[in-house]
Write a structure and sequence with these properties.
heterodimer; A: 170 residues; alpha+beta; elongated; B: 412 residues; alpha/beta; seven-stranded mixed beta sheet; five-stranded mixed beta sheet
Chain lengths: 170, 412
């Protein structure tokens, strides 16, 4: 695969060629074959994937069988939570079609930040925005769930009272 | 083997499902209203400091102040105390005394403590929980390894904070505001239930045979009362071992033997043959009375039971799956929340006497106990007949009904 044009991916927007050049030591282009799982649930991998082309499937095997959580089309950023938090992968991700991506090595990325590399700092800001958007979406979802109508408690008590004073009062 | 909590919850849940109670109402009824865990530190006689854990669980007060014993036992823990507090709620409701359910305990082996240490332990426990108990709030009583002396210390220590309030605990010595008839109350209730269960089979108690596991307070009084009515005790067992005598034991002589025996056991009683746990539970008798430990009747034991009636003197002697086996075999199983509720019923009489400052005669205690137990028996039996249920399920449904009614009428 020839070198990818990073500036075409929204994640790298705002970074000039000099910024990207300063990050190259932390980046590696990859092509992932369809069907290959490249992010593994429960593992610590320290890699973030910036997907340029292709479709991926996020799935979990935590409760025995496999459950599909999401299908994500390029352009996308995957694996950033584990890469930044140092925790473990929350789910598996596999390529549904052939996927073209660049891999950002978290350790090397942090080294570039420590070295004061402007491109690394700009990328960190991009990452913060990605995470903030996801948090906002999650908050919205949580609010929706909370607002779902619950069984009317008063009616429930009234029904309980009816049962006690009628059918179970011999 | 299910824990006490799982068994208690299992019976409750079975009844709640039959009543088709919604999950949130079920949770409202099953969750304890308050659980307290405290440190109980005392100075030992040798000058060292010992620290124990104490528990008080207040399960439900919809029908009145929390009520339940306090046990001193090395196995006491939150799970056990929770389960027993839960059972007390249903027990007080079945017999219709105006109390809720509670239980307490200290994780301690009381055999390792002197009388002085036990007194300091009891007083320290009161220091830690006095602000959540009281004659109109939560009324403890004796339980495993605690007795009337423990309650006398308890009431005395409580009085130092709140003034003279004998109704703060029941099961006190007669000399310090206890009630006559309290000591034999649980055994009397078990004996009454045995008599009424036999009557369901058109049998009188006279000449009926019974096997008894446990010869402590409950077991010995059950034996004395049933034998005084003409029943025959043919198998008995306790922590020391098991005995049988097809001609029948002299219950009064057995009580004297246990009192004089350093092991406090029935073993060594003259004229009886050695037996076993398995033989006692499989004895061909009219009534089987487990009056010692929880969980003794498991599936295997239940399959061997030949008695026509099982009356639970102990708390939780039958595991839920074993209960179903007994019911399928057609055994009349009288559940603990009804059978051994005589104790809490006379505790109620003691509390009434304490709050009214008016003492009853023994005859009044016995008459009122029989009246209240009989009312409970009739209500449970009527529910069982009306809805084609076994006695345990009917008793839990009666209890849930009464606690439920109080809950909805009072409002949340």
């Amino acid at each position: 695969m020839d070198g990818m044009d990073y500036s075409q991916h929204p994640f790298f927007q705002g970074l000039d060629p000099k910024d990207i050049e300063g990050l190259l030591s932390a980046l590696c282009d990859v092509t992932i074959a369809a069907g290959e799982t490249f992010i593994h649930e429960g593992k610590q991998e320290g890699l973030m994937y910036v997907v340029f082309a292709g479709t991926t499937e996020v799935y979990s095997t935590r409760n025995g069988g496999e459950s599909l959580l999401a299908v994500i089309e390029a352009p996308a950023v995957l694996g950033e939570i584990e890469a930044l938090s140092g925790g473990s992968r929350a789910a598996n991700v596999r390529a549904k079609t052939e996927v073209q991506a660049c891999v950002l090595d978290a350790k090397k990325f942090f080294e570039r930040i420590d070295a004061g590399e402007p491109g690394a700092h700009k990328l960190l800001l991009r990452l913060a925005r990605v995470l903030a958007k996801r948090l906002s979406a999650m908050n919205q979802k949580f609010t929706e769930i909370e607002r779902r109508p619950k069984p009317p408690r008063h009616d429930e008590l009234r029904e309980f009272q009816r049962k006690l004073f009628s059918e179970w009062s011999v | 083997m299910p824990s006490h909590y799982e068994s208690a919850l299992g019976y409750f849940t079975d009844a709640a499902r039959i009543m088709d109670i919604s999950p949130s109402i079920e949770r409202l009824l099953v969750e304890p209203q308050r659980q307290m865990e405290v440190e109980v530190a005392i100075e030992r006689d040798d000058g060292s400091i010992a620290v124990y854990r104490g528990y008080r669980v207040q399960h439900n007060a919809a029908r009145g102040p929390y009520k339940g014993g306090i046990r001193y036992h090395p196995e006491a823990d939150q799970d056990e105390v929770n389960a027993l507090a839960n059972l007390m709620t249903w027990k007080t409701a079945v017999v219709g005394v105006p109390f809720g359910g509670g239980k307490g305990g200290i994780k301690v082996d009381p055999r390792e403590l002197s009388q002085g240490e036990l007194q300091r332990l009891t007083r320290k426990f009161v220091d830690q929980i006095h602000f959540i108990i009281g004659p109109n709030v939560d009324i403890p009583a004796p339980d495993v390894n605690t007795n009337s002396q423990t309650m006398a210390w308890f009431a005395d220590q409580y009085a130092k904070y709140h003034g003279f309030e004998p109704g703060v605990v029941t099961g006190k010595p007669i000399e310090v505001y206890g009630s006559v008839g309290r000591e034999e109350a649980t055994g009397r209730g078990v004996a009454l239930c045995s008599k009424w269960a036999l009557a369901e089979l058109d049998r009188g108690v006279e000449g009926a045979t019974f096997a008894l596991q446990g010869f402590g307070n409950v077991g010995s009084w059950t034996a004395r009362i049933l034998c005084s009515w003409g029943a025959k005790l043919v198998a008995v067992g306790d922590h020391g071992g098991y005995l049988e005598n097809p001609d029948g034991f002299d219950a009064e002589a057995l009580v004297r033997h246990v009192a004089e025996n350093p092991d406090r056991s029935v073993m060594g009683f003259p004229g009886a043959d050695r037996s076993s746990f398995e033989a006692l539970f499989a004895a061909d008798v009219d009534v089987l009375i487990p009056a010692a430990l929880g969980g003794v009747i498991d599936d295997e034991v239940a399959r061997t039971v030949r008695a026509k009636v099982v009356v639970e003197g102990a708390n939780g002697p039958t595991e839920p799956s074993a209960h179903r086996i007994l019911v399928e075999k057609g055994v009349i199983a009288v559940p603990d929340i009804l059978a051994n509720a005589g104790g809490v019923t006379v505790s109620y009489f003691e509390w009434v006497q304490n709050t009214q400052r008016f003492l009853w005669e023994r005859a009044q205690v016995d008459t009122e106990l029989e009246r209240i137990m009989r009312r409970a028996w009739d209500q449970v039996a009527a529910l069982a007949r009306g809805h084609k249920l076994d006695l345990r399920t009917a008793a839990f449904i009666l209890a849930i009904r009464e606690v439920g009614k109080a809950t909805v009428l009072r409002g949340l």
